[in-house]
Amino acid sequence: MIDLRSDTVTRPTPAMYEAMCAAPVGDDVWGDDPTVNAFEQAVAGHTGKQAALLFPSGTQSNLVALMAHCERGDEYIVGQQAHTYAYEGGGGAVLGSIQPQPVENAGDGSLPLEKIRAAVKADDFHFARTRLLALENTIGGKVLPHSYTQEATSVAREYGLATHLDGARLFNAAIATDTPLSALCQPFDSVSLCFSKGLGAPIGSVLVGSQALIDRARRWRKVTGGGMRQSGIIAAACWHALEHHLPSLADDHRRAETLARGLVNLPDVTVTSQATNMVFADFPQHHAEPLAAWLGKHDILIDLLHSARLVTHRDIGDADIDKVIAVMQAYFNHHG
User: Fold this and answer.
1) How far apart are alpha carbons 21 and 12 in whole angstroms?
2) Measuring CA to CA, how many Å separate 45 from each of 24, 130, 231, 242, 299?
3) CA-to-CA distance for 64 and 70, rounded, in angstroms?
4) Structural contact between residues 152 and 113, judged by C-beta atoms closer than 8 angstroms
5) Distance (Å, rounded) from C-alpha 74 to C-alpha 250?
6) pLDDT tens-digit map of 69-122
7) What contacts 96, CB < 8 A, 6 or more positions away?
8) Cβ count near 225 (within 10 Å)
9) Is the sign of the CA dihedral 99, 103, 107, 110 positive or negative?
């Protein structure tokens, strides 16, 4: 099955399974898991932060970051297209009593600096207290320019705001721009990194930041149900991915470019964006259902509505991309 719905569908490699089976483990809630402890130290080193904390998911890592930075009645500035605002169940508001202040994203995924400034509330008891700026990189596959993140976090500091980065696909940004991970993390007080997307681990995200921030986050991880036991098995998978799977991200990006070029040549199909490992395309609405069925008959899975996101990943090869393009071309040839 050629699954282009997301890079979350990847499965562990045999070598990753071996690393998981060989991992020494202990009870992580007691701080006794040696693999988790060593892995967290390694990630902190890679990102240039003081400390790191392993989570089951990026959604929980982001939520805990919000709760570690903010108190009840505080607010965070966030993009309307950001995952933390639009796709994480409103967790900051529901569980943290933290109000989001959404700002419209620019075409490149950034939040315009003037809109950030305008969103900061005055120190007045009528308003929620603005405490945090949250950005996302990559966002819709697009890489935020490093110069922009430096400027945006500087604006936040002018207003005394903390800064958080949803870096679920920050590894893609690092590979795409040939920039060290630590440089991309440097402007932010906290960063959430996901290992179960392009890197191919079955589970696991890590929050990095200062020791004080991670100490607060550890408490909120427990409160939100994220205390784990022999989680060295998870850490070992993530660690293996970190050490062995980064180079393959460049292949994902190349294959996404190839896919986009192939889609451009299809009738009435518009490629609206391609960056890193994501292709966004608009298909004629009357073709959506029959095209999805046609692709399914050829063992191709795509989340196909009027507008579709197609995501390449380490379980997709060059021949798979060629097949997707050929099967789509055959569909349009057959259906006129």
Assistant:
1) 12
2) 21, 30, 20, 12, 42
3) 10
4) yes
5) 39
6) 999 999 999 999 999 999 999 999 999 999 999 999 999 999 999 999 999 999
7) 63, 66, 67, 70, 72
8) 9
9) negative
